[in-house]
Amino acid sequence: MTFDEIMAKVKAMAAKVDASGTDFLAVQVNLTGKESGVFYVEVKNGKVSAEPYDYHDRSCAITIEPANFVKLMDGKLDPVIAYTTGKLKVEGDLGKALEFSKLIKK
Fold first, then answer.
1. Which residues of the chain have pLDDT under 70?
2. What is the 3-state secondary structure (H, E, C) of 68-103?
3. pTM here?
């Protein structure tokens, strides 16, 4: 899956997610490898948005390969297992990264 396809999938997911119970959350996603790229997902005022930019005032940043990120979104990769096996790296608030993973699985 290309970066643009992943971005389209994330935006489609963002339009459907019910984030009413989530306070402010800003996660930067760093995709590594052949289809590398950077985007962020932000929850603010109960709305979820995703844009292909760096987010400097973020809650956390995750670094993951594109294929593993797609598996994470599809519920085929457990975020805790991904983190403990090194497939997913987190910089910043680990709790916010876990909150993000629950959001994208809804």
1. 105-106
2. HHHHHHCCCCCHHHHHHCCCEEEEECHHHHHHHHHH
3. 0.90
